[in-house]
Design goal:
Helix content: 40-55%
Radius of gyration: 22 Å
EC number: 2.6.1.-
Largest sheet: 7 strands, mixed
CATH class of the largest domain: Alpha Beta
GO molecular function, one term: pyridoxal phosphate binding
Structural class: alpha/beta
GO cellular component, one term: cytosol
Strand order of the largest sheet: 4-10-9-8-7-5-6
CATH architecture of the largest domain: 3-Layer(aba) Sandwich
CATH superfamily of the largest domain: Type I PLP-dependent aspartate aminotransferase-like (Major domain)
Number of helices: 16
Number of strands: 15
Cofactor: pyridoxal 5'-phosphate
Strand content: 15-25%
Family: Belongs to the class-III pyridoxal-phosphate-dependent aminotransferase family.
Bound molecules: pyridoxal-5'-phosphate
Length: about 450
């Protein structure tokens, strides 16, 4: 038995994988995939297969793989001080420096950053902070959070509830009652095909207004949204959407959380997605791109408006009763400092913008005429291709046909390119590292064309 055979067996027998068909995997019906090393946009498995990772892990390895600047910073920090906590005012050179670097890059209304470990826990923090905020302001009923169907905000209790995808609710007794959902700004999937984009925005706004009316603005604390819907299908908002939503929220004194776990630090070719679309958040969630996933770190960036109330709360009630052992972990913070510096030094955000535009344009030129391609969309270094059974009537395939998973499997087996079959709908998503070159983008497009041809003709 080779080492790989042992690993496959140990994997099946011991490892509970996230977001996996547990029974099939345990029975050995799905392959064990053991990734060994990586460099640039390529990962390599233990069998020596070199794969072009056009999804940057889970859209997180923004700086690309194998960056010595980041791994050296991690090693140096581990040697100097692997851990100290950040409770009762403690910090480290790395965590304090990183907080400043984040605020230097954040929108002007932002004030402080609380560090967590992943996007889910950062959004849990956000909800707690908002409940605390409204209690301090003497508004004990103003607690519900509005999210969108197809939004993705994590898989904890509240965050799994915020996530608007059925798979994350079913059999988990979610969503919890404090979370309510509204229409996704998904123009391609609008119910009324005659609607123009601006009519569809008006429809989304009317849906939000009627939800607020039904629930009562006095019972609604916040609205959470990704600037571009990510896991729900990689869907940029229709023109004018965010300005219109922000106006409704302001009118009803409802806070706005921009979940920038995917879009923060450059994926749209700009530093933050909220700025990209011209809206102003009260809290911004960050994670993935903060360290390019070299170490687990997230953050809740809170605005002056929220911060002032939190300060008032601790003057009235004592220290805030919220914290994780690993908040602002120095090794993760050192990875963040090195990553943000590298992204600046190599001008990677500009590259995400220009090569991302090239990738989107090339994908459109290559596939827009295919009868089973219903939509090709993207922004910055994000791109998605959505398949339909019939384009004129916009008829979708049955989920059981697994068209998206088949196309992504063909990309992998034929050309060793990783694209993600998005979990709801026949959509394949691309979110490569920011260092992708035009030649590598060409390779991704050619492989996609070949895979679509194999599966759909
Ligand atoms: N928010 C968004 C927009 C995400 O895309 C994700 C993960 O993909 C999360 C939150 C949850 O982050 P994590 O998986 O690190 O908990």
């Amino acid at each position: 038995m080779s080492t790989n055979d042992f690993l496959a067996e140990w994997d099946r027998d011991n490892f509970f994988h996230p977001s996996t068909h547990l029974a099939q995997h345990a029975r050995g019906e799905t392959p064990t995939k053991v990734i060994k090393t990586a460099s640039g946009v390529y990962i390599e498995d233990r069998d020596g297969n070199r794969l072009l990772d056009a999804f940057a892990g889970l859209y997180c390895v923004n700086a690309g793989y194998g960056r010595k600047e980041i791994t050296d910073a991690i090693a140096q920090q581990a040697g100097e001080l692997a851990y100290y906590h950040s409770y009762v005012g403690h910090g480290t050179e790395a965590s304090i420096t990183l907080a400043k670097m984040i605020l230097d890059r954040a929108p002007a209304n932002m004030s402080k950053v609380y560090f967590g470990l992943g996007g889910s826990d950062a959004n849990e923090t956000n909800v707690k902070l908002i409940w605390y905020y409204n209690n301090i302001l003497g508004r004990p009923t103003k607690k519900k959070i509005i999210s969108r169907w197809r939004g993705y905000h994590g898989s904890g209790l509240v965050t799994g509830s915020l996530t608007g995808l059925e798979l994350f609710h079913k059999k988990f007794d979610l969503p919890v009652e404090q979370v309510i959902h509204t229409e996704a700004p998904y123009y391609f999937r609008r119910e009324n095909l005659d609607q123009s984009e601006s009519e569809f925005v008006a429809h989304c706004v009317a849906e939000l207004e009627s939800l607020i009316e039904r629930e009562g603005a006095d019972n609604i604390a916040a609205f959470i949204g990704e600037p571009v819907l990510g896991t729900g299908g990689i869907v940029p908002p229709p023109e004018g959407y965010w300005a219109a939503i922000q106006a409704v929220l302001k009118k009803h004194d409802i806070l706005l959380i921009a979940d920038e776990v995917v879009t923060g630090f450059g994926r749209l070719g700009t530093m933050f997605g909220s700025e990209h679309y011209g809206f102003e958040a009260d809290i911004i969630t960050i994670a993935k791109g903060l360290t390019s996933a070299y170490a687990p770190l997230s953050g809740s960036i809170v605005s002056d408006k929220v911060w002032k109330v939190l300060e008032q709360g601790t003057d009235e009630n004592g220290p805030i009763g919220h914290g994780w052992t690993y908040s602002a972990h120095p090794i993760c913070a050192a990875a963040g400092v090195a990553n943000l510096k590298l992204i600046d030094d190599l001008n990677l955000i500009a590259n995400a913008g220009s090569v991302g535009a090239y990738l989107n344009q090339s994908m459109k030129s290559a596939l827009a005429d295919h009868p089973q391609v219903g939509d090709i969309r993207g922004e910055g270094m994000l791109c998605a291709v959505e398949f339909v059974k019939d384009r004129d009537s916009r008829t979708f395939y049955d989920a059981a046909d697994k068209i998206g998973p088949q196309v992504s499997a063909a990309l992998l087996s034929q050309d060793k390119v990783i694209a993600r079959a998005m979990p709801q709908g026949d959509i394949i998503g691309f979110a490569p590292p920011f260092c992708l070159s035009e030649q590598e983008a060409d390779k991704v497009v050619a492989a996609t064309v070949r895979a679509v041809k194999t599966v759909l003709g």
